Automatic annotation (TrEMBL):
Span covered, complete protein: 77 to 375 of 380
GO biological process assignments: SRP-dependent cotranslational protein targeting to membrane
Lineage: Bacteria, Pseudomonadati, Pseudomonadota, Gammaproteobacteria, Lysobacterales
Localization in the cell: Cell membrane; Cytoplasm
Bilayer disposition of the protein: Peripheral membrane protein
Reactions that this protein is recorded to catalyse: GTP + H2O = GDP + phosphate + H(+)
Signal peptide (from-to): none
Annotated EC: 3.6.5.4
Residues that coordinate or bind GTP: 105-112, 187-191, 251-254
The protein, known as: Signal recognition particle receptor FtsY
Principal localisation: membrane
Organism: Dyella marensis
Function comment: Involved in targeting and insertion of nascent membrane proteins into the cytoplasmic membrane. Acts as a receptor for the complex formed by the signal recognition particle (SRP) and the ribosome-nascent chain (RNC). Interaction with SRP-RNC leads to the transfer of the RNC complex to the Sec translocase for insertion into the membrane, the hydrolysis of GTP by both Ffh and FtsY, and the dissociation of the SRP-FtsY complex into the individual components.
């Protein structure tokens, strides 16, 4: 399994940059650290995180803590794992019944795909899963979810066009309760250009869910696109002003993602990264593991 993380992450500019930096068996000097800093910044790690990481390593190098570049690389690995360890907190959906997962995030980030993958995962764990087609703004999103549900024998609660999202999700939670479902995953709209509208809508959804279960939603899972770099970071910042995000999914880390955004997110928010998307198939949505992720990036 470890090898597959590496296969998927090796194309990122993070992995390629470090590989070219260290494969030359470089001299341990300030120029190497400067290059390392540039590599991290260009890989979306973020300026602050990159700078503080490299300055720490530089001090240690000046104290002659590292015998060679390999020792520096080992220290870097340790630092990177330490950055990500606090956000490795997997989602446990077994505590409540039904466990209500509200998914949020802007259009195109892979939200619908992620819902399908999650439903598969929980179903394969022998849980009864239901979906709520709460992105009532996009007819295509409702259809996509319905088709997926039909193909995988997972019930999807939906209403007609222009239905009220909160009403769909309220009905879905009632249905999930009466059918004894274990997990309800609700989709929501993702148009950030009307922030006020989205805020009202998500607020209303949370309020109506609480009429049925005072603690619902149990997870507000925000899906972000790993290829969008610092833009993904600002999306999280914006959504956190709208709704109490409790966990993140970072998708598309396999493709053209630079790989570093996960560190920037961990440092800025400390929110649990529940899953990462390393490809388009259902099994490519992995439970986030700090060590596997870092080892997938390093040479
Ligand atoms: P939504 O608008 O947020 O609901 O986005 P969709 O779920 O429709 O996904 C948009 C595109 O991203 C689709 O083509 C997905 O197959 C693709 N996608 C989603 N997650 C991943 C991933 O982890 N890796 C890759 N390579 N593609 C992904």
């Amino acid at each position: 399994a470890r090898r597959s993380w590496r296969e998927r992450l090796s194309g990122s500019s993070f992995a390629r940059g470090l590989s070219s930096l260290f494969s030359r068996n470089p001299k341990l000097d300030d120029a190497l650290l400067d290059e390392l800093e540039t590599t991290l910044i260009t890989a979306d790690v973020g300026i602050e995180a990159s700078t503080s990481l490299v300055e720490d390593l530089r001090k240690r190098m000046h104290k002659r803590e590292f015998a060679d570049a390999a020792a520096l690389l080992a220290a870097l690995r340790k630092e990177l794992v330490m950055l990500l360890a606090p956000v490795q907190r997997p989602l446990d959906v077994s505590g409540r019944k039904p466990y209500v997962v509200l998914t949020v995030g802007i259009n195109g980030v892979g939200k619908t795909t992620t819902i399908g993958k999650l439903a598969r995962r929980y179903r394969d764990e022998n849980r009864a899963v239901m979906l709520a087609a709460g992105d009532t703004f996009r007819a295509a999103a409702v259809e996509q979810l319905k088709t997926w549900g039909a193909r995988n024998s997972v019930p999807v609660i939906a209403q007609g066009q222009d239905a009220d999202s909160a009403s769909v999700i309220f009905d879905a939670l009632q249905a999930a309760r009466s059918r004894g479902a274990d997990v309800l995953i609700a989709d929501t709209a993702g148009r950030l250009h009307t922030q006020g509208g989205l805020m009202d809508e998500l607020g209303k959804i949370a309020r109506v869910l609480k009429k049925i279960d005072a603690e619902a939603p149990h997870e507000v899972l925000m899906v972000i696109d790993g290829t969008t770099g610092q833009n993904a970071v600002s999306q999280v910042r914006q959504f956190r002003q709208i709704v109490g995000v409790t966990g993140l999914v970072v998708t598309k880390l396999d493709g053209t993602a630079k790989g570093g955004v996960v560190f920037a997110l961990a440092r800025e928010f400390g929110l649990p990264i529940r899953y990462v998307g390393l490809g388009e198939s259902a099994t490519d949505l992995r439970v986030f593991e700090a060590e596997a992720y870092v080892d997938g990036l390093l040479p």
